[in-house]
Write a structure and sequence with these properties.
The protein is 50% helix and 17% strand. The chain is an alpha/beta fold. Cobalt (II) ion binds at residues 42, 44, 67, 98, 101-103.
């Protein structure tokens, strides 16, 4: 139980530090959240959304799942997207994947990983649709890096094709969808240049 006790000690220290920096921090936060961004990222523990972009709690609305997928029938992701767009009125949706993604790697392997293979089947579909161009990459590492990028591009399109985003654009609401990738080797983000929405 030592580890879990440590988490509570960490929590007390963190809350104290936040209050020292801004005595009204939690008071303001409890009143409302006004994030301008929705982050759809991988569940990977090495990709902590707020930290990467230097934002505080309350500044980033976050949804994470394995391999940062936006699936048209995933009520969890769609509910987050709908709430973010229609209630919080975020201006940017950031689909952020990362190099070295275990989900992407597992999706192209022949061996079984259990239930998750059905979730990762969506990534395997992208792999199979682009097999020829992916196999022209030099080596397995380069192939997987490119597939990580392709997956993000596909999820940006998926997000843009949801009824939620379509309706927002039809109403004239300002909303952009972005595809970013994070490199766990140097902690740096890269914009894949596949943004859609208003200029
Ligand atoms: Co990942």
């Amino acid at each position: 139980m030592k580890t879990l006790k440590n988490l509570f000690i960490n929590n007390r220290r963190w809350a104290k530090q936040m209050t020292q920096e801004d005595p009204n921090f939690f008071k303001n936060l409890a009143r409302q959240q006004t994030p301008k961004y929705l982050w759809i990222g991988c569940a990977d523990s090495r990709v902590p959304a707020n930290d990467i972009v230097g934002l505080l709690p309350g500044e980033l609305f976050v949804h994470r799942n394995v391999a940062n997928l936006v699936i048209h029938t995933d009520m969890n992701c769609l509910s987050v997207l709908q709430f973010a767009v229609e209630v919080l009125k975020v201006e940017h949706v950031i689909v952020c994947g990362h190099y070295g993604c275990g989900g992407i790697k597992a999706a192209v392997e022949e061996k079984r990983h259990g239930l998750i293979d059905n979730w990762l089947r969506h990534v395997r579909d992208i792999y199979q649709r682009n097999e020829r161009s992916l196999k022209s990459e030099k080596g397995k590492v380069a192939l997987l890096r490119r597939l990580c990028e392709m997956n993000i591009e596909e999820q940006v399109v998926n997000a843009a094709n949801t009824t939620i985003v379509r309706d927002a654009w039809r109403r004239g609401q300002y909303l952009k969808i972005h595809g970013w990738i994070y490199d766990i080797h140097d902690g740096l983000l890269k914009d894949l240049g596949v943004s859609v929405g208003e200029k």
